[in-house]
Description:
- By secondary structure, this protein is of the alpha/beta class.
- The protein has 2 domains: 2-169, HUPs (Rossmann fold, 3-Layer(aba) Sandwich); 188-307, Elongation Factor Tu (Ef-tu), domain 3 (Beta Barrel).
- It has helices at 28-44, 57-61, 74-83, 96-99, 103-115, 136-141, 143-146, 155-173, 177-184, 200-203, 289-307; strands at residues 2-4, 16-20, 47-54, 88-93, 117-123, 149-153, 188-195, 209-212, 224-232, 235-244, 255-260, 271-281.
- The chain has a 6-stranded parallel sheet with strand order 1-4-3-2-5-6. The protein has a 6-stranded antiparallel beta barrel with strand order 7-8-11-10-9-12.
- A hairpin with a 2-residue loop joins strand 9 (224-232) and strand 10 (235-244).
- The chain is elongated, with a radius of gyration of 23 Å.
- The two termini are 34 Å apart.
Amino acid sequence: MKVYKSLSEFKALKNAVVTSGTFDGVHLGHGKIISMLKETAAKTGGESVVLTFWPHPRLIVSPYDQKIKLLSTLDEKIELLENLGIDHLVVLPFTREFSELSSEKYVEDVLISGIGTQTLVIGYDHRFGKNREGGFDYLKNNAHRFKIDLVEIPRQEIESLTISSTKIREALNNGDILIANGLLGRPYSFEGLVKKGRQLGRTIGFPTANVHVAKKYKLIPSNGVYAVHVYLRGRSFQGVMNIGERPTVDGKGITQEVHILDFNDDIYGETLRVEIADFIRPETKFASVDQLVGQIKADCEKARELLS
């Protein structure tokens, strides 16, 4: 897959088969759309092109809304789309100026002149252009001018797509990891830099990696204890993660702390990726540190059981 971070990097193709969207999370619903795109490209002898936008339009339209959380960063989205086997990924910088582009200019300057679109795979409810004025009907009514063949994504696929994105976010916010992972088709994950915390874990025999997620818009699941796989230094480890405020030891602020099973190296300053496999229990305030230690031991055993 070739990746282009602007339209100027892309040379228009002779037979581009295109679909577009934000593709946040690249879940199973998105996978069906990509399969349709690839099948259409194979039938027409064209090259598959996914057109997406970054930053996510909502981050530009509502820059101060802290409630906006995304399932994937740009790097994660690129990796996931590459795994689906498309030919080209064009990432258009989404700016306020771009949001003012009329539907006609979008079709002529981006789809036709910029990409070389011969076939567009599009849903009945897809909107584009200033004030979302363009859509499937607009393209169909102007087919004689634009000379773009349209392949409509079935209504049930679009509705499933919308439900999936909403359900994944709701599931993660409720700690329903198995539901989220089932809709994603893979374990939900995030990565971050290991930073020094209060190092209280070491004093009770369970050192933890305090994982700092730089992208504030990245959705972190609800507070609780989770069984996780940890990827570090090219290896995979089993682990237990606590998301929350560590109430027993008077923690302040939400943290993501991972205890890697059977591992005790110094990893400060390193980047690790956490794949969340299952939910173990809610975060709890214990009456004493001894009770906390006993529960952590039980959590580790439960994690081994779930991850095996």
